[in-house]
Amino acid sequence: MRNTTIIIPVIVVLLGVLLSSVFIVDEREKALVLQFGQIKSVKEQPGLAFKIPLIQEVVRYDDRIQALDTVPTEVTPSDDRRLVVDAFARYRISDVVQFRQAVGANGMRAAEERLQGILNPVIRAVLGANGVTSNTILSADRAALMERITAQARQRALPLGLDVVDVRLKRTNLPEQNLDATFARMRAEREREAADEIARGEEAAQRVRAQADRTVVELTSDATRQADIIRGEADAERNAIFATAFGADPEFFEFYRSLTAYERSLKGSNSTLVLSPDSEFFNYLRSDQGARSAEGE
């Protein structure tokens, strides 16, 4: 009974020591075995590994490709047109021992700060080199510029134990203080173009109106001329008819003209005429004139 009481705690302690000496390395990570802060071994292959309990510790680092968004940086190409460039980088830990020695116990956060300090100067240096203009940065030639940035950043990151896989430019804008001036210039250009279009439209409208007015005058003049001709021919024909009628029977023609005069004078709402009784206007309405006409027949 006494032996069982002693053996069980010993077995538990041995199991605890054994379990604390065993650790698993995932295929997505690399591990360092440290003893009092010194690197004792590197575990890069996935599987089981061992360490000395209580004396050694395991530090794990992600072996996958990481992404880093850079702080927007202002660059000045050779055409002196300042731009704000926003980029991102992909990197991974290539040498875990060198990485640990370079960044210490601060890990990935310190590494990203160091890498940020590498990327921004390289971006400014490449995009501000001779022959690199803002048009080059904004054109298809930017692919070659990104390759140059990647190559230089990779070279500078090697002492950190990092491999810069790729650097890409996400966005390229004008500085904030230049945007208002640029928009104002674009607005002024659009307003000038609009004013030119309005002026050309007004000029074309005036030409159309002038042509229309001229056409109206010409058509009206021609219509008036033709109307005058037709009216003159009608008057001439009417006068010829009157002359023929007058020559055939002057007495009847006088009688017809008197009736026409009566009709015209009595038109409208007023049918009252005030004339002298012996006026010639009533010659054909007086009975004696009618009697004389009968006698003459």
UniProtKB/TrEMBL annotation:
Membrane topology listed for this record: Single-pass membrane protein
UniProt KW Membrane keyword: yes
Name of one Pfam family that matches: Band_7
Keyword Nucleotidyltransferase found: no
Keyword annotations: Hydrolase, Membrane, Protease, Transmembrane, Transmembrane helix
Residue ranges occupied by any Band domain in the UniProt entry: 20-186
UniProt GO molecular function: peptidase activity
One Gene Ontology cellular component: membrane
One GO biological process term: proteolysis
Transmembrane stretches, start-end: 6-25
PANTHER family attached to this UniProt entry: MODULATOR OF FTSH PROTEASE HFLC (PTHR42911)
Family: Belongs to the band 7/mec-2 family. HflC subfamily.
Function description: HflC and HflK could regulate a protease.
Protein name: Protein HflC
Source organism of this protein record: Pseudosulfitobacter pseudonitzschiae
